[in-house]
Amino acid sequence: MVTRFRCRHRAALLVLHVLHHRVKREVKRKAAGCITVTTVTDWGHREMMSISLWRKAEDIYQMGEVTSHVLAARVPGRLDISTQAGVFSYVGDWRKVLFGNVYTDGSPLTGWRPDTTEVRNGNSH
């Protein structure tokens, strides 16, 4: 999930940064599907991106159970901060996506899963 915030003033960007830091801690504690959250800030353009990784797309709904996030979601409107957000999903192994190769290692978010037929035959990697 990527959310971009565009602030009219650096003071609003600073408030957003402090708020995001507080919310991030609670999200990581209470939303079991959250892998990590980070930010990228462009102070010159007064923009911040919040980038979060989730085990499954439906885990994003867990944000609704985090009280500080629900309350913080109201702040951009009050501070005249513009927002854009999008969900970006795993579409396949990079070799398959870029080159059409059929080889795949599985999703980097879930880790390697052994081929169960080889494990049963005693031929694990």
| SSE topology string | EHEEHHEHH
Overall radius of gyration: 19 Å
Q: Indicate the structural class.
A: alpha+beta
Biggest sheet character: 4 strands, antiparallel
Strand content: 15-25%
Overall pLDDT score? 86
What's the oligomerization state? Answer: single chain
Uncertain segments of ≥5 residues (pLDDT<50)?
115-125
Q: What's the short version?
A:
It is built from five helices and four strands, in the order βαββααβαα. It has 125 residues and is of the alpha+beta class.
Can you give keywords for this protein?
125 residues, alpha+beta, four-stranded antiparallel sheet, 5 helices, 4 strands, disordered C terminus
Topology:
Elements: E1 2-6, H1 10-30, E2 34-42, E3 47-54, H2 67-72, H3 75-78, E4 82-86, H4 94-99, H5 116-120
Antiparallel strand pairs: 1-3, 1-4, 2-3
